[in-house]
Amino acid sequence: MKALSQKRRHPLAAVILLAIALLLTGGLYAVATATNEAKADTSVSYTAQDAEEGQKLFIANCATCHGTNAEGTADGPALIGVGAAAVDFQVGTGRMPMQMQGTQAQVKPGQFNEEQTHQLAAYVASLGAGPTIPEAEFTDVSQGDAANGAKVFLANCAMCHNAAGVGGALTRGKFAPSLMGVSEKHIYEAMETGPQGMPVFNDANITPEEKRDVITYLKSQEVNSSPGGFALGSLGPVAEGLLIWTLGLGIVLVFTIWLTSRSA
């Protein structure tokens, strides 16, 4: 009996084991959370003062369409959860604020400077998690692969933006804008946020490295010298056929008039 009593577990043993398990679980969760936050971190940081100043700018310039608390109105969508990248793209390219309601926001000189754009992005980012402004390494074309970027672009983007990235017409008065001369950061943000009628290409669709490759390809297109002759806007065989048809028909008409005048 004495031996059996010595082998019995202490009444607090289960409690101690449970406490140890909770400590281990909490520690693992803290490590995992820190790792995820490190992965989600960007080269751009925001302060509480940035968000406060951004809120003032928002109320003075954006609340009419997007609502006082960015909840959206009949004239503009809600901005809660769209992220800093969407604000940086729309405001940085001058698309927002819009001068007037229309089918599609137009590119124009920006109304806000870089610091004010940063503050607006900070305020919207504080309203809910969303795509962040990309890190510098993912917009560095010196690290990109233009050949792979061409494959990704042709498979996902060329049907709207043209294989050369010069843009094209869409339905209902919309259009895919030219990507020539657009900054690397704004191209990346457009893929992340899907502005206008563009689909969203998150990291599950196109990885950050592939996005960088796409940017590298587009930047290589900007310096393409068109060794084959006139580029004709790089609009493809339709533009080329139209030019040949127009010139050919014109030459035939001129030659016909010349023959008629000689016979007369």
TrEMBL record:
Where in the numbering of this chain does the Cytochrome c domain appear? 49-222
Keyword terms, alphabetized:
Cell membrane, Electron transport, Heme, Iron, Membrane, Metal-binding, Repeat, Respiratory chain, Translocase, Transmembrane, Transmembrane helix, Transport
Topology term for the membrane: Multi-pass membrane protein
**EC numbers:** 7.1.1.8
Catalysed reaction per UniProt?
a quinol + 2 Fe(III)-[cytochrome c](out) = a quinone + 2 Fe(II)-[cytochrome c](out) + 2 H(+)(out)
Q: How does it assemble?
A: The cytochrome bc1 complex is composed of a cytochrome b (QcrB), the Rieske iron-sulfur protein (QcrA) and a diheme cytochrome c (QcrC) subunit.
This one is known as Cytochrome bc1 complex cytochrome c subunit
Query: Which taxonomic lineage is given here?
Result: Bacteria, Bacillati, Actinomycetota, Actinomycetes, Micrococcales
